[in-house]
TrEMBL record:
This protein's record includes keyword Iron: yes
Native source species: Rhizobium mesoamericanum STM3625
Binding site for heme: 329
Full protein name: Cytochrome P450 BJ-4 homolog
Cofactor(s) required, per the database record: heme
PROSITE patterns in UniProt: CYTOCHROME_P450
Family: Belongs to the cytochrome P450 family.
Enzyme type, top EC level: oxidoreductase
Length: 384
């Protein structure tokens, strides 16, 4: 695989650069999902669900109101425990939020949790197709999740009382001009479970690590949160939280959760000063865009000031960690809301008893960069 230079961002928008490689890298779980499709097939699959993820769709579904108490309860539990291994905790919180987002009833969460963990095994399972192997267990979990999603879709059509994004996606999907089979929707529900979990959990964990490393940043966040006094629940509230938003954006810039996006050329191309024959595998390095001095002053320094007091709106270059072009992250507005909610809830909860996050071991040790970039599972944060 060739890793292209930072100035080859255009590859993500190029009509002769395909996303099918993603499906081939993880065929058992990502094959047929919209992230691995190109052109009109991709557009049709994406159009079926994208409205639900825009601020209007998220507000209509009451997602911010649903998330706020769950996040507050979790950070309160952290305060009572006095310290946590941060990534396992944010991973667990994100999984819960993702399941709630889908409208999975609370009593079903333990079994979904178990099936989801088994599903993840499909990413690394050796190709041994025998009873009891990770491959068999992973496939069984995938089939179980798909069957549940199919039932959710049927329930949504029957206008049962189930709530959540699946309802909205089904309505949008059924209203779309081109009739698509339910298989597309089922595959994309599975993609949503996978795409939003580790990426957001990792960013959340880095946010806490950065707050623990920088007392001034923590104090600025606490001041802002106390002034507002409440966790925001809609995008229109977010303007009251410039520090929390800058924390989210700067954390993601320095610690992009998706460090490398795979693609393949479909025709002979000249990109990034290289000649690339048709069929060349590409790795588009989002990590390098984040740390490029062509795009940012002092790129290695964590500076929320880059985001504060800006007059120009956030543009594609400011959110490169979510990709760009037709495959730009569908979850961007959701992540923006939930990570600001998280930062504000953390500050409000901890300041009540005057405690703040403290880094208890080396956050650089054991960090990984692929398939998602994450701090080590062993990084501990104390609250004292
Ligand atoms: C900090 C959190 C996140 C980051 C950094 C992130 C990053 C990305 C990136 C870089 C892509 C582009 C992939 C490509 O071009 O091939 C992407 C696509 C996608 N993301 Fe996210 N993501 C995050 C959270 C979420 C969430 C919460 C969801 C939904 C619940 C989500 C759903 C998707 C979907 C469905 C796609 C595929 C879009 C398409 O192919 O048209 N992501 N994300």
């Amino acid at each position: 695989m060739i890793c292209l230079d930072p100035d080859t961002l255009a590859a993500l928008r190029h009509k002769n650069v395909s996303s099918s490689l993603i499906g081939e890298m993880a065929p058992e779980i990502l094959g047929g999902t919209l992230v691995s499709l190109d052109g009109s097939a991709h557009r049709r699959a994406r159009d079926g669900i994208k409205e639900a993820f825009l601020p209007k769709g998220l507000t209509a579904a009451g997602i911010g109101d649903l998330f706020a108490p769950i996040i507050r309860a979790r950070v309160q539990a952290w305060r009572e425990r006095g310290g946590v291994s941060i990534l396992p905790e944010t991973g667990d919180l994100m999984l819960k939020l993702t399941f709630y987002l889908m409208g999975i009833p609370p009593q079903d969460l333990p079994v979904w949790h178990r099936k989801y963990r088994q599903l993840l095994q499909l990413i690394v399972a050796p190709p041994v197709d025998l009873p009891g192997t990770p491959l068999r267990r992973g496939r069984a979990a995938r089939d179980w999740i798909d069957a549940q999603s199919r039932q959710f879709i049927r329930d949504a059509r029957a206008r049962s009382t189930r709530t959540g994004l699946i309802n909205d996606m089904v309505s949008a999907f059924d209203c779309s001009e081109d009739a698509l089979s339910d298989d597309v929707l089922v595959a994309n529900v599975r993609l949503l479970l996978l795409a939003g979990h580790e990426t957001t959990a990792s960013t959340m964990a880095w946010m806490v690590i950065e707050l623990a490393r920088q007392p001034d940043l923590w104090h600025a966040l606490v001041e802002e949160a106390r002034h507002a006094g409440t966790v925001p629940t809609q995008h229109e509230h977010l303007a009251q939280f410039p520090v929390a938003e800058a924390l989210f954006r700067e954390t993601l810039r320095l610690h992009p959760a998706s460090s490398l996006v795979p693609r393949r050329t479909t025709r002979e191309l000249h990109l990034g000063g290289r000649h690339l024959p048709a069929g060349t595998r590409l790795g588009i390095p989002l990590l390098h865009f984040s740390t490029s001095s062509l795009l940012h002053d002092a790129p290695d320094q964590f500076r929320i000031e880059r985001w504060l007091g800006r007059v120009e709106p956030v543009g594609p270059l400011d959110m490169l960690q979510f990709g760009t072009g037709p495959h730009v992250c569908i979850g961007y507005h959701l992540v923006w809301l939930e990570l600001v909610q998280f930062a504000v809830a953390l500050a409000l909860t901890m300041q009540k008893t005057g405690v703040k996050p403290q880094l208890l071991n080396d956050a650089e040790k054991g960090r990984r960069f692929f398939p998602t970039a994450q701090p080590s599972m062993k990084v501990r944060i104390g609250f004292s």
